[in-house]
Specification:
Number of strands: 4
Shape: elongated
Order of helices and strands: HHHHEHHEEEH
Number of domains: 2
Mean pLDDT: 92
Distance between the termini: 31 Å
Structural class: alpha+beta
CATH superfamily of the largest domain: Glutaredoxin
Low-confidence stretches: none
Number of helices: 7
Strand order of the largest sheet: 2-1-3-4
Length: 155
Amino acid sequence: MNEVQEILKQHVNAHRDHLIPILQEVQEKCGFLNQNSIIQIAEHLNIPASKVYGVATFYNQFRFHPQGKYNIQVCRGTACHVKGSAVVLDALKKELGVMPNETTSDGIFSYEVVACIGACGLAPVIAIDGQFHAKVNSDSIKDLLSEYRKKGDAK
């Protein structure tokens, strides 16, 4: 039995109103929602897979690709925007060669854009696996990525 089926087994008489908690559990267990998990959930709840996918894509908490070893959050809140987070975002795109919500081909990095991290005094700020990095710019992005690549190789 796969991980999704184990979760669905705990929701025997579940209906459409259980969809979000089930999606959350599957993502927590599997790391992301793939096509197969969406189909299994739809069949279990007796609703079209398109409805499951529609709900999952509506909420930005759900991912459809595996995250990298290091997940980067780029703050685009007002303070970060004013202090140049667009430049930081462009530097990440260039250095990693992927778009937001994607993972690098080596599986080391993924990144996402968030509305606000809540560290406005550190703007522009990014978080890498929850560790904040303050006043970042395109040069410091290169250095940070290099540092984390070295960490990744050491593990």
